[in-house]
Design goal:
44% helix; 9% strand; mainly alpha
Length: 370
């Protein structure tokens, strides 16, 4: 009997240790992915770091790790290799923050190099901006006219950027490059033209859409064009970071169930000619005739409805695994959504004044895994 009890205890201890190692492994992967792919920047503590002359990428990462800014040297160096900051980190003393994502750290440590004509200004392209909105901002800042920018967009071919071969030739879209102009801050020089600016944006996308991400997309059966089409809807719909993968999963679930996506922003994009200067759609707008309108047409819209950032692209490649089919805003001030699994639950929630399950950053996975 004593041997049996010892054996049971040994098995229990082994299982417990196994679970502990499994949890540790999951936490390690989550931490690694955050530093390799994460875009969230939150509150933290300022830390001063000094990068010596001729420091290698790995030496830079080691300095950041010693200062408590990162945990994974390899995650940092891999991201740097695939970013627009590769080879641009400059020796010097910088103030970073423990709440920063690694891409933001790289940006700070890659100050603008002295240009022969000097940096005149910067152009900030927020996540979710459309080509029309970027063109308007270029005109506002007197970088180029809106028409010059849009003409430059139309002049790009697959010979310039081979990954654009993913854009179907037959699609009826407003711009073939919508989705590919990466949201970021761009330096404007005296020599900057509309064409060079568009090239910079496409190069930035190429730097952020890594080989690993492309492999993930291929494994899911997605072209870059489909990834960006899905990510653009997530970008326009999700206001809170943790909701992005949930909304990406709702899109997946509705498509798998042969349901219309019925996403309002797919109407607003063509209806406002990419300006998004109308806040909401009316019942009459639901009939707006456009290949982007997912109330009228099944499947995905004709193409991307904005230029999504890295966080929304990652949400499409790493969606939540829940079974929600419906969502609706439950807090206008924050943009928080409630989520429902059935039409009956969705309808009943409005009748009863119950605005669904507002998934939170802490319990989103638990809620959607039931």
């Amino acid at each position: 009997m004593a041997k049996f009890i010892k054996a049971v205890i040994a098995i229990a201890v082994t299982l417990l240790l196994g679970l502990m190692f499994l949890d540790a492994g999951k936490e390690y992967k989550k931490s690694y992915d955050r530093e390799y792919k994460g875009t969230y920047t939150g509150p933290g503590t300022d830390v001063e770091v000094t990068i010596p002359e001729d420091a290698s990428d790995r030496e830079v990462a080691a300095i950041l790790k010693d200062k408590g800014l990162i945990k994974h040297i390899t995650a940092f160096t891999r991201r740097l290799d695939n970013s627009q900051y590769d080879g641009k980190i400059v020796a010097g003393t910088y103030t970073l923050n423990t709440g920063m994502n690694t891409l933001s750290m790289m940006e700070i440590m890659s100050p603008v190099q002295e240009h022969e004509n000097g940096v005149l200004q910067t152009l900030v392209v927020p996540e979710g901006f459309t080509i029309d909105q970027i063109a308007a901002r270029c005109a506002e800042q007197d970088i180029c006219t809106a028409e010059e920018f849009k003409n430059a967009v139309q002049s790009i071919t697959t010979a310039d950027f081979p990954y654009l071969a993913d854009v179907p030739d037959s699609v009826d879209v407003r711009y073939r490059l919508e989705g590919y102009l990466f949201p970021a801050t761009y330096n404007i020089y005296e020599t900057t033209t509309a064409n060079s600016l568009v090239h910079d944006m496409l190069s930035a996308f190429n730097g952020h859409y890594t080989a690993e991400m492309q492999a993930e997309a291929e494994g899911m059966g997605y072209s870059s064009y489909e990834v960006l089409t899905r990510a653009s809807m997530v970008e326009r719909e999700a206001k809170l970071d943790y909701e992005r993968p949930i909304i990406a999963s709702v899109i997946n679930n509705r498509l798998k169930s042969n349901m219309l996506l019925q996403i309002d922003s797919t109407i607003l994009y063509p209806m406002t000619e990419g300006k998004y200067d109308v806040a909401k759609v009316s019942n009459k707008d639901l009939e707006y005739d456009s290949p982007y309108n997912t109330y009228l047409h099944s499947g995905l819209p004709a193409g991307p409805i904005c230029n999504p950032g890295a966080a929304c692209i990652n949400a499409v490649l790493n969606p939540d695994q829940g079974d929600y089919l419906f969502y609706h805003v439950v807090d206008e001030s924050t943009g928080q959504h409630g989520f429902w699994r059935t039409q009956e639950e969705f309808d009943a929630s409005f009748e009863n004044g119950d605005m669904g399950i507002p998934a939170t950053s802490g319990d989103a996975n638990e809620e959607t895994a039931e």
